[in-house]
Amino acid sequence: MTRIDAHQHYWTLGLGHNDWPPPELAAIYRDFTPDDLRPHLAAAGVTKTVLVQAAPNLAETEFLLELAEREETVAAVVGWVDVWSPTARSDLERFKRHPKFRGIRPMLQGIEDTFCILQPEAIRTLEMLPDLGLRFEALIQPRHLPVISALADRLPSLRIVIDHGAKPFIGKGILEPWRADMAALARRPNVCVKLSGLVTEAGSGWTVDKLKPYAGYLVEVFGPQRVMFGSDWPVVNLDANYEQWWLAANELLRDLDESARQAVFCTSAARFYGIDAEGQRRASGFN
Fold first, then answer.
1. What is the pLDDT of residues 85-127, one digit of tens each?
2. Alpha-carbon distance 95 to 171, whole Å?
3. Residue 188 lies in a domain
4. pTM of the complete model beyond 0.70
5. From its phi and psi, is residue 203 left (phi > 0), alpha (psi between -120 and 50) or beta?
6. 20 to 30 A from 227, CA-CA: which of 8, 58, 183, 185?
7. How many structural domains comprise the chain?
8. Residue-number span of the structural domain to which 56 is assigned
C-alpha cells in the first residue's frame, strides 16, 4: 500500500519567522528537519508528505518551499498568505510558480472573530483559489464548523480540508454539538477532513478507545474517500510520537476494507492535493 502523510511540519527556530512553539513546550521547542522525520516515515512505509505551515507570515512559506525543492519526500506544501490583504493575489501568484505549492492555511483557530473568514476581503481572496488550482486548509475549532459550512456553500468550487477533525474536545469527552456540526459540514461535497491531531486533543491520558467515537464518526459521515491520515508531526510529540499515533490510526481503521484503508492512507490526499505516488502534479481534478 502506498502511503501519504497529509499533515506534517518542519521549522528552524533560529531563522526568526517562527514565534511558535514557545519554550514551555519543551518536547517540540527545537529545530525539526527532514533528517528527523525520515526514519519515522521509513518505519511506517510512508513515501510522501504534505508539508503545512506553522507561522502566519510569508517568510516561513518561502522557507518551506525552498526546503521542498531539495526534499523528495515532500509532495505538496500548504503555505500562508494574508487573505484579508490587497497583496493576497500577488502573493498567491508568486507562490503558485513553485510546482509543489498547493494551498493556504490562514490559522483561524487563533483569531478571536469566529466569522472573519466570511469577510468580503477574505471571500475575494478565496474566490481566486480554484482558478489557481489551490486549496483552502481550515485550522479551526468546533466553534467554526457552521462558518465553514457557510463558506462551502458560498464557494462550492473551493476545495476545503478540515485539519485535525476541527479539534473536538476529546479530553473532556464532549461530542455535541461537534457531531451534529460535522455531519452538516460533511454534506458539502467540496469538503474533506484530516484524521490528525486527535492525540493532542485527547491529552497525555489518551487511549485508542477515547479516540474511537471521534475518529469513527469522521469516517462514517465523510466516508473514507474524503478522510486523509496526517501525523501532525512533530506536534504529536507533545503527547505521543509518530509510531504511537501511526499504530493507533491503524487500530482505529482496522474494520475498514483494503480499498477504504488505501483511501485514508493515500488516495484521498493524492486526489485532494493533486499529487501521485511520486509526488508529481496530477492532471485529474477533485471529485
1. 999 999 999 999 999 999 999 999 999 999 999 999 999 999 9
2. 38
3. yes
4. yes
5. left
6. 58
7. 1
8. 4-273
